[in-house]
Amino acid sequence: MRIRRAIDDLEFLVRLGDGTLPPDVFRVYIEQDQLYLEGYSKALALVSAGAPDPQAGGFWATSAATAATVESALHGDLLGSDALPDATGTPVHTPECLGYVSFLTATAATRPYAVGAAAVLPCFWIYADVGRRLAQQARDVLAADPDHPYARWVTTYDAPEFHESVERARELVDAAAAAATEAEREEMAHVFDIASRYELMFWDSALHPRPWPAS
């Protein structure tokens, strides 16, 4: 998929992997990702509410709780450490971040379960794929600097339990597609593509910000 290749080629991810990303840019990214997780956890909870069975509902609910607590706490610890520059103010959603979370929550709240599940899948799947690719680079960076904040953060997304959850999410979306109507499957592909585009825009905006118009 062209959008997937474009993500791998992003300057932000290349420099994140080799440890050369400016510290202030990494802080902006982590701040935005923490804001994103707040919205993403709500979208996951909405998908859980519409799940067709307790097993699927339990997975999405657990994922929502993990995003809201475990992942958010990891971001908070990093932002509160001495590894990154001090905050320059209270973070506010960038246009890309707000657009992404608004799209996910609206889709999960108003569309059938299968469509909502397809919309939240790229965050699982692309993060895991990117994380696996960057993890080896991060290990090389850590070998030279064991305290490097980027590398420590990247390696968390190559954890086996994270990849297990990604595989489960893919299985559930595949099952939802099998039970969906043809029109719903077309919509699933459409929202998956939109969410994938937002993934690219979200990462890229940390290094190449597009400020809100002046009020």
By helix and strand content, what is the structural category?
Answer: mainly alpha
Number of helices: 9
**Average of the residue pLDDT scores:** 90
Low-confidence stretches: none
End-to-end distance: 38 Å
User: What is the ordering of alpha helices and beta strands?
Assistant: HHHHHHHHH
Number of strands: 0
Radius of gyration: 17 Å
Task: Provide keyphrases for this structure.
215 residues; mainly alpha
Describe the model.
This protein has helices spanning 2-8, 11-18, 23-49, 54-79, 95-110, 113-144, 149-156, 160-179, 182-207. Helices cover 79% and strands 0% of the residues. It is mainly alpha-helical. The chain is globular. The protein contains nine helices and no strands.
List the helices and strands and how they pair.
Blueprint: H1 2-8, H2 11-18, H3 23-49, H4 54-79, H5 95-110, H6 113-144, H7 149-156, H8 160-179, H9 182-207
Helix pairs in contact: 1-9, 2-6, 3-4, 3-5, 3-6, 3-9, 4-8, 5-6, 5-9, 6-7, 6-8, 6-9
Give a brief description.
The protein has 215 residues and is mainly α. It has helices spanning 2-8, 11-18, 23-49, 54-79, 95-110, 113-144, 149-156, 160-179, 182-207.
